[in-house]
Request: fold
Amino acid sequence: VTIKDLAAAVIIPLILAEVGPWCGWLAAGFLPLAARLRYGHTDRAAVWLEEWSGDLDGIPGQLTKLGYAVGQFVAGSAAFAGRRAERWISGGSGKAATAPNPAPEITNLTPPAGYGGPTTLSVAGNSFQQLPQWIQNVLTGPTMSAMFEDNARRIAQRTYRRLLDEGYSPQQIRTMAARKRREYDKVQVTPLSDGASAYRPGSNDELVDLLRLLHLLAPDEFRRLLLRRGATCQPG
Amino acid sequence: MSGIERVTRPTLDVLEVLLKAHQNGRDIHGWEIKKATRRSGPTIYGVFDRLEDAGLIEGHWEHQGSSAKGPRRRYYRLTGAGVTTALVLLADWRGQQSQTRVQPLTQGLVVDFGRLA
Reply:
């Protein structure tokens, strides 16, 4: 008798016998969560929860019940993430809105007298002008981040609305953004040398496209990739 | 024209089942539609959301006696607009299907005539 035989004959049935009854209980627990994720605290969530619970009663087998509930839960999580992204894109909420200082536009800032001129930075193989030191002295870290987020969000919102106007569905836009994000993962980003903002208006289109679509889909990941390295980019 | 944001294959499947139920003069519950279309639960309920938002279907709860326990079933039926939309969309889709099936045969005939000439 091999270990495989033993597992097939004794261990797996034992595990199933132990776990099986819990699956139904677990499935029933997943459904309210799935409904709330998918529809929030709405009447529709209550309606679907009752309906899904009815479905669950009609499903034979405890593991199948669990599979059904997990499916609803996964779909609910996806809907929740999509809803959050759309709320963010439409300007409903965002961290920049609660930043300690109002975020000024980079383009509205004018250098003081005596400014000596830019130095050069390299990001993803492109050269950028470095924002002058006097801006870094004026702006604190959170303000710099908020400024960046405001700009990136504006660009993302504009892009999103343009794509909607062109007839793309929100789902298609998310898919496009995901595809861009995969491309972005292959791009090597050199950390900026000293935490300065970098920009080169009109000449970094490819990077800007990648940044705006990545930011559209996954702002947290975007911040993790760039801002935590002490770098702040001004995309366009 | 259809009143729904996107017309996907699962949407057409659901409309087809609902239309059949309508023609048979009965309402049909969600689980039954799921089984008939062989689609997953989240897909089917996503379609219900869109159809309900567009006013193409309406749902109502089954009447349970006081002794009945457990969750109620919800039954669906096409609205007047839903019947019209379903007929149009399904006819369109069937038209497209038959075109894609006929096209290769026509091309084959053209080639054969060319050879004969």
Q: What stands out?
A: The interface with chain B takes residues 44, 47-48, 50-55, 57-58, 68, 71-72, 74-76, 169, 171 of chain A (CB under 8 Å). The longest strand of chain A covers residues 126-130.
